[in-house]
UniProtKB/TrEMBL annotation:
The keyword Ribosomal protein does not apply. GO terms for cellular component: plasma membrane. Pfam families: Cation_efflux. This is Cation transporter. The chain crosses the membrane at residues 22-40, 60-76, 83-101, 113-133, 153-170. Residues 23-197 form the Cation efflux protein transmembrane domain. InterPro entries: Cation_efflux_TM, CDF/SLC30A. It comes from the Bacteria. The lineage of its organism: Bacteria, Pseudomonadati, Pseudomonadota, Betaproteobacteria, Burkholderiales.
Amino acid sequence: MADCCSGSCDSGRAPDPRYRKVLWLALLINAVMFLVEVVASMQAHSASLLADSMDFLGDAANYGVSLFVLGMATVWRSRTAYAKGLVMGIFGLVVLVRALWTGLGGYTPAAETMGAVGVLALAANGLVAWWLYAFREGDANMRAVWLCTRNDMIGNCAVLLAALGVFGTGAAWPDVAVASIMAILGLTSAREVIGRARQELHNLEKQHA
């Protein structure tokens, strides 16, 4: 994923008001889809849907930081990134536990629900990517945000493959496998965010010592 997907993209305030409007819309869509996938994952007993919701949560947080926090002092940006990394890490662990619970509990996810929500998630990310396409040749941060959304569509496709696998095999292992991979990637991103935030806070402390 692009750096902004892991929370390390240091986007400034966008000079183009159209871009800020797109970020607001993207924030709303990602927040709504996070809730939709969390609820659907519980109803369908799908760990991969829960894992995919982690991407929506991370993106919503990144858009929120871009719009609200990055105009503040550096120390607050770093503290926010640290907190966000902790939340990402906790959520990644929840996904792994959910995947283990699904695999050992003998639950077979509802492939139809997985497929329907997966298509909806792909459409949501596709719409945001289409809006951001016009700004893909902007500065590095604008391009990173667009690439982040585009790459998230790969996760949506992974959920659809998991749904197809569950439907074809009648077993839970495709869902568990996809969820585990996505959770590990999320934990890796969380570790990177926390490490970078701690380094920034350490550097700030040295500067003011």
